[in-house]
Specification:
This is Four-helix bundle copper-binding protein. It holds the Pfam family Csp. It contains five helices and no strands. The chain starts with a helix and ends in a 5-residue tail after the last helix. It has a single domain, classed as Substrate Binding Domain Of Dnak, Chain:A, Domain 2 (Up-down Bundle), CATH 1.20.1270.360. By secondary structure, it is mainly α.
């Protein structure tokens, strides 16, 4: 299944698919799941992992919302879409920095996904106008 294919089937899109945005959507969905999993794993770790749980949970929610807003192709809401991408970048960078401060493998994996998602959202921003 391909999000790019699904978006290209929209009557208002057709051959005018924004591939960088489709990639950002795809990675935001992945990032949401990985950040949720990391937050859950952090809850099982010894010690105080509350900050990591918080930022990963926030990132998961923001990534989910960003993917949903970016997937909608009927009409225009450019200002909101750009704000969502910018917010997703900030959330992912915050989560990556927090996760990188922990030695847990799940945190390192989450940090990597968050960095990829932030880069994809950053690449999509100039294509949204």
């Amino acid at each position: 299944m391909s999000i790019s294919k699904m978006i290209s089937l929209h009557p208002d899109v057709g051959d005018d698919l924004n591939e960088p945005l489709a990639t950002a959507i795809r990675h935001a969905m992945f990032c949401a799941v990985i950040a949720t999993s990391c937050a859950d794993a952090c809850a099982a770790e010894p010690g105080d992992m509350s900050q990591c749980i918080r930022v990963c949970s926030d990132t998961a929610s923001i990534c989910t919302a960003t993917a949903a807003v970016a997937t909608r192709r009927t009409g225009q809401n450019v200002a909101v879409l750009r704000t969502m991408l910018e917010t997703c970048i900030l959330a992912c960078e915050t989560s990556a920095a927090e996760c990188e401060s922990h030695d847990h493998e799940h945190c390192q994996w989450c940090a990597k996904m968050c960095r990829e998602c932030a880069a994809d959202c950053r690449a999509a921003l100039p294509t949204v106008n």
